[in-house]
Amino acid sequence: MVDIFTPEQRSHIMSQIRGRDTKPELALRSMLHRMGYRFTVNGPKNKRLPGRPDVVLPKHGTVVFVHGCFWHGHENCADFKMPKSRRAWWKAKICGNKARDERVQAELRVLGWHVVTIWACALKNIHARMWLEARMPSLIGPQPVEEVISETWKVAEDETPYRVNS
Predict the structure, then answer these.
(1) What per-residue confidence (pLDDT) applies to 19?
(2) How far apart are CA 37 and CA 144, in angstroms?
(3) What are the domain boundaries of the chain?
(4) What pLDDT, on a 0 to 100 scale, did the predictor assign at position 149?
(5) What's the pLDDT at 2?
(6) Domain 12-137: CATH class, spelled out
(7) Is this prediction's pTM over 0.85?
(8) Which residues of 94-121 are buried (b: 16+ CB within 10 A; e: fewer)?
(9) Which residues of the chain have pLDDT under 50?
């Protein structure tokens, strides 16, 4: 299929693609906030971390990246199709993005961060968001140690442990 846009029009369209505050990022932030998670987006930790994560949850030691399926080469996703024109250039571009993502994640793990990647297709519609929301607590990880230690555990007469919020 031939491109229906001139090179100038295509260049203008591509220049309009935002790198921050995209619809998937806003949907994820809204979901996290509604679920009671507090996070930073433009905080000092975000800017100093490798790869500038989209969301930082300092209390949980977790950083979240929202990856666009096309730009980061989400395999087996309907939203990712390798362009037919300039195939070699696009393959190098997307492979470079994947390599950078892996390097950044490794750097963050060395610094002690738990890294979560959310694909844009997981935020595409209400059903995908509901699926993601149900899994979000397990993705973000366990509570910090100090929270677990501060909770009081009691044992009932039948030896069944239950938690009492203090």
Answers:
(1) 66
(2) 13
(3) 12-137
(4) 34
(5) 66
(6) alpha beta
(7) no
(8) beebbeebeebbeebeeeebbbbbbbbb
(9) 143-166
